[in-house]
Amino acid sequence: LYTLAKIKSETGNVEKSIQLARLAYTLADSSASLSLQSKAAELLSYVFEKKGDLAQGLKYHKVFKALEDSI
Asked: What is this structure's pTM?
């Protein structure tokens, strides 16, 4: 899911990318995979910033940084 979300973001399909990245983040969270959670949070931060939703972008950037610090 993460890879598909990344592809969607690179091809300009921001809404689908957000949907897939959120799902990837949720699944990674439920499986306690910090590495995958971190990647999904970083992608969500990037895509929300690209969309112009800076508040959500910052939220996920903070999540990404916290996860990176705990890995």
From this structure: 0.93
Give me the sign of the Cα torsion angle 63, 21, 57, 39: positive
**Chain centroid to CA 36:** 9
| Structure confidence at residue 18 (pLDDT) | 97
Q: Using H for helix, E for strand and C for coil, what is the string for the chain?
A: CHHHHHHHHHCCCHHHHHHHHHHHHHHHHHCCCHHHHHHHHHHHHHHHHHHCCHHHHHHHHHHHHHHHHHC
